[in-house]
């Protein structure tokens, strides 16, 4: 192997140093400045992006605060509307209850009047039926039905009613 030949070591070391110097010169004059510019541009973009992100974050906080305020205002307005509607409904309900109570009272009075009429009619009909039955019984037993039957039936009904 020629690389391991000691006679050519000096020559190999020279060309190695020349190649390294050439690579260093190319890298330091061409590649590294380009890489530096690219890194600088990237750093500038990142700084600008971070500043824009902070600005957007601040705007988002402001928008959130405005949203929360609008939401609170909307809730307060909704509560006012609910309270107004509740008061209106309560007033209508009280009016409807009062109207229903008045109608129930009127119907109750009418029903009580009818019941009183029915009781009066039933009592009168019961007297009439009792007189007729008593008169028929007296006649069936061979007696004479006269005014004393009416007095006896009235006395008995008054005694039963009392």
TrEMBL record:
Q: What is its main location?
A: membrane
The subcellular localization recorded is: Cell membrane; Endomembrane system
TM ranges are 12-32
Membrane association type = Single-pass membrane protein
Q: Which UniProt keywords apply?
A: ATP synthesis, Cell membrane, CF(0), Coiled coil, Hydrogen ion transport, Ion transport, Membrane, Transmembrane, Transmembrane helix, Transport
According to the UniProt entry, the coiled-coil residues are 53-80
Matching InterPro entries: ATP_synth_b/b'su_bac/chlpt, ATP_synthase_B_chain
Top-level taxonomic group: Bacteria
Q: Name one Pfam family in it.
A: ATP-synt_B
Keyword Coiled coil among UniProt keywords? yes
Assembly and partners?
Answer: F-type ATPases have 2 components, F(1) - the catalytic core - and F(0) - the membrane proton channel. F(1) has five subunits: alpha(3), beta(3), gamma(1), delta(1), epsilon(1). F(0) has three main subunits: a(1), b(2) and c(10-14). The alpha and beta chains form an alternating ring which encloses part of the gamma chain. F(1) is attached to F(0) by a central stalk formed by the gamma and epsilon chains, while a peripheral stalk is formed by the delta and b chains.
Q: What does this protein do?
A: F(1)F(0) ATP synthase produces ATP from ADP in the presence of a proton or sodium gradient. F-type ATPases consist of two structural domains, F(1) containing the extramembraneous catalytic core and F(0) containing the membrane proton channel, linked together by a central stalk and a peripheral stalk. During catalysis, ATP synthesis in the catalytic domain of F(1) is coupled via a rotary mechanism of the central stalk subunits to proton translocation.
Family affiliation: Belongs to the ATPase B chain family.
Q: Which NCBIfam families match?
A: PRK13454.1
The record ties this protein, via HAMAP family, to: ATP_synth_b_bprime (MF_01398)
Protein name, entry field: ATP synthase subunit b
């Amino acid at each position: 192997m020629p690389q391991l030949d000691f006679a050519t070591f000096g020559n190999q070391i020279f060309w190695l140093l020349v190649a390294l110097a050439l690579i260093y010169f190319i890298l330091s004059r061409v590649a590294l400045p380009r890489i530096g510019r690219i890194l600088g541009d990237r750093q500038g973009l990142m700084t600008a992006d971070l500043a824009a992100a902070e600005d957007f974050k601040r705007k988002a906080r402001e928008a959130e605060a405005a949203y929360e305020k609008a939401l609170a205002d909307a809730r307060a307005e909704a509560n006012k509307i609910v309270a107004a509607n509740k008061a209106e409904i309560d007033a209508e309900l009280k009016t409807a209850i009062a109207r229903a109570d008045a109608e129930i009272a009127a119907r109750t009075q009418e029903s009580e009047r009818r019941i009183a009429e029915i009781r009066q009619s039933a009592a009168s009909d019961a007297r009439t039926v009792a007189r007729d039955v008593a008169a028929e019984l007296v006649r069936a037993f061979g007696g004479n039905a006269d005014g004393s039957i009416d007095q006896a039936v009235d006395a008995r009904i008054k005694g039963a009613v009392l």
